[in-house]
């Protein structure tokens, strides 16, 4: 049924994003032997340089807003302009007089039609500031000192075919298919705005995003001295959309406004998405070009309280004045270099509470009641250290210059989904923090003996039906009871609108919507699990009837014995995780995110394997129960996949087939 205002369902567009890419990951170079790190670390014994602690000043944020608003005025197209810092703090939200107050998410399906049914999160009518903030966060979170991605980039990598175009039907889905439903407002990992910016925890990140990650063009990253310091997002047309065709060039006014905003704060040209190929296709950055801009307007005083004003956004920005950015890497940003007591490898970064304490210190599992012998802190440390070591050796897929080392975020969880440790590379994209945890929890959940039981008991009436769909699809009426080890690549296979992935005329996977209903807002189980959370948050943002904010936990699956949700920040459906076993007993999972998806798979898989070899007690799932032993009875039979490891993955050796036999 149609949602009553303020959350009515209605027309065009989608959400999406992030980054990680697919593909054969070693295409940039096959050099082996001694490798000189780029950029050069500041001390010996390290593989990475720390990003400079740059941040936007109040005056710079004002300039960025004024430039974007000046372009909007020249185009006679009133807009909302949002600016955030690298960890997601909202620094300004400016609404021009006459700008839209509401926006609608897409109800256009992948077939190009408007869906006759209101499916998942299609057609939500919400506060338009939510779109501007989500776009800004997307651009900031997907970018790093080695890659600059935009919301147009995000659009390209989350659709049902990659690249999305009229001549690409039959190709697999985008490498970051599903990443749009990360950074959710209900996430237990994401921090929240503190009214008045008071206290030591006020600016710690990563902050949540109102609608997850966005695929609507009009979000671009901001840089100072080659370092990403934030993002800008524009909402002007009320249509929160995506670009279904990369073959044409769009004259998108929102993108021109964002492009004006980043003048003086643009990324270096050689790290922009349009310099980065994935599976033979160069990514998109922006269709707007500088030569199409009007003369820049840089005076904030000339626009503030004249042609618009700063506006409060409940849960994100108080509207009383422009805020300076927080330098990434500082204690106050919530992400900093680890101490030797927190993690032994000197390049590691951790999440901090703003007062000096690691938010996710390495610890043992909490699930002894379920598994008997849970992961120990020493085992978790071994897996994370070995995964981190693999990361330092791996050739990056998306970073520039060529032959840079991969940088990712990595999380280990127990079978309850409790975080047992979280570390990251110094300059890994921010989006991968939440996504790595989603991936770890997803692998642990679907490999768990209680997976079906949990879904059947979800209080959303639609969720239990997915259990029977997957059982019928696999021809196994006992599926999702712990007999099979599912990596995120395996569950992702079952979450695509075509099975096998991309092949036209094939049925949808049992966790997906059929192609006639599918768009980036209607992915199936992934969004169905959190739709109620998104709706509640949207009502809160617009302050309808003094609504409460969504709880800091996603989904309505039953609580664990410790009173938490196993999927407290949602699930993820693109590759980069594996479950961890003690013999044939599931004890946890590791999730990786931030570079190519094959790189993510490899780091997770070899981290679990090498960590197990080191401590002699745990490791990857026994081969006999891995999901790639399942042959789906379609045609001659289609085998599920478990992990894909890239060709020529390492910078220090020429080894191939590095995951074979493990």
UniProtKB/TrEMBL annotation:
Keywords: Signal
Segment forming the signal sequence: 1-25
Signal recorded as keyword: yes
UniProt cross-references to InterPro entries, sorted A to Z: GlcG_carb_metab_protein, PduO/GlcC-like, PduO/GlcC-like_sf
Superkingdom: Bacteria
Pfam families: HbpS-like
The keyword Nucleotidyltransferase belongs to this UniProt entry's keyword annotation: no
Protein name as it appears in the record: Heme-binding protein
């Amino acid at each position: 049924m149609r949602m009553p205002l303020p959350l009515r369902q209605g027309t065009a567009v989608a959400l999406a994003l992030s980054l990680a890419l697919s593909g054969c990951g070693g295409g940039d170079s096959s050099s082996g032997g001694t490798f000189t790190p780029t950029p050069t670390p500041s001390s010996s014994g390290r593989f990475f340089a720390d990003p400079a602690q740059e941040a936007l000043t109040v005056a710079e944020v004002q300039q960025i807003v004024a430039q974007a608003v000046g372009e909007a005025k020249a185009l006679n197209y009133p807009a909302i302009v949002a600016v955030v810092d690298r960890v997601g703090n909202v620094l300004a939200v400016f609404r021009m007089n006459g700008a839209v107050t509401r926006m609608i998410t897409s109800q256009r399906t992948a077939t190009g039609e408007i869906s006759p049914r209101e499916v998942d999160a299609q057609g939500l009518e919400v506060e338009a500031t939510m779109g501007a903030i989500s776009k800004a966060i997307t651009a900031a979170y997907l970018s790093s000192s080695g890659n600059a991605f935009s919301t147009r980039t995000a659009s390209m990598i989350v659709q049902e075919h990659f690249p999305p175009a009229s001549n690409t039907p039959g190709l697999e889905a985008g490498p970051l298919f599903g990443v749009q439903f990360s950074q959710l407002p209900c996430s237990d990992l994401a921090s929240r705005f503190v009214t008045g910016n008071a206290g030591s925890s006020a600016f710690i990140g990563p902050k949540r995003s109102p609608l997850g990650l966005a695929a609507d063009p009009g979000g671009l990253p901001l840089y100072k001295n080659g370092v990403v310091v934030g993002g800008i997002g524009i909402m002007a047309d009320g249509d929160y959309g995506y670009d279904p065709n990369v073959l044409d060039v769009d004259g998108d006014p929102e993108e021109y406004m964002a492009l004006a905003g980043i003048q003086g704060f643009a990324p270096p040209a050689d790290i922009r998405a349009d310099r980065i190929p994935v599976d033979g296709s160069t990514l998109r950055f922006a269709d707007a070009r500088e030569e199409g801009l009007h003369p820049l307007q840089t005076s904030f005083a000339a626009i503030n309280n004249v042609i618009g004003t700063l506006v409060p956004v409940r849960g994100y920005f108080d509207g009383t004045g422009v805020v300076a950015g927080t330098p990434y890497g500082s204690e106050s940003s919530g992400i900093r270099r680890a101490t030797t007591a927190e993690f032994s490898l000197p390049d590691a970064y951790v999440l901090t509470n703003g007062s000096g304490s690691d938010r996710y210190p390495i610890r043992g599992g909490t699930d002894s009641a379920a598994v008997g012998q849970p992961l120990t802190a020493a085992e978790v440390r071994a897996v994370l250290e070995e995964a981190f070591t693999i990361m330092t050796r791996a050739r990056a897929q998306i970073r520039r210059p060529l032959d840079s080392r991969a940088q990712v975020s990595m999380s280990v969880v127990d079978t309850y989904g409790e975080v047992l440790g979280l570390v990251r590379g110094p300059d890994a994209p921010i989006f991968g923090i939440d996504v790595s945890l989603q991936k770890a929890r997803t692998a642990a959940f679907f490999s768990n003996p209680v997976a079906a039981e949990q879904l059947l008991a979800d209080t959303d009436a639609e969720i239990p039906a997915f259990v029977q769909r997957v059982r019928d699809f696999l021809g196994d009426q006992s599926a999702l009871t712990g007999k099979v080890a599912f990596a995120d690549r395996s569950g992702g296979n079952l979450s695509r609108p075509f099975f096998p992935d991309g092949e036209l005329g094939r049925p949808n996977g049992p966790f997906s919507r059929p192609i006639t209903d599918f768009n980036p807002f209607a992915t199936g189980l992934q969004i169905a699990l959190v739709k109620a959370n998104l709706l509640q948050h949207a009502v809160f943002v617009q302050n309808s009837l003094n609504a409460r904010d969504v709880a800091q936990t996603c989904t309505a699956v039953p609580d664990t014995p410790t009173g938490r949700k196993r999927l407290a920040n949602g699930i993820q459906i693109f590759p980069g995780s594996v479950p961890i076993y003690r013999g044939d007993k599931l004890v946890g999972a590791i999730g990786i995110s931030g570079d190519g998806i094959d790189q993510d798979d490899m780091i997770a898989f070899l981290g679990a394997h090498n960590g197990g070899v080191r401590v002699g007690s745990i490791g990857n799932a026994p081969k006999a129960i891995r999901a790639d032993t399942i042959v789906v009875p379609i045609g001659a039979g289609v085998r599920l996949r478990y992990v894909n490891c890239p060709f020529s993955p390492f910078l220090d050796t020429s080894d191939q087939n590095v995951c074979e036999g493990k």
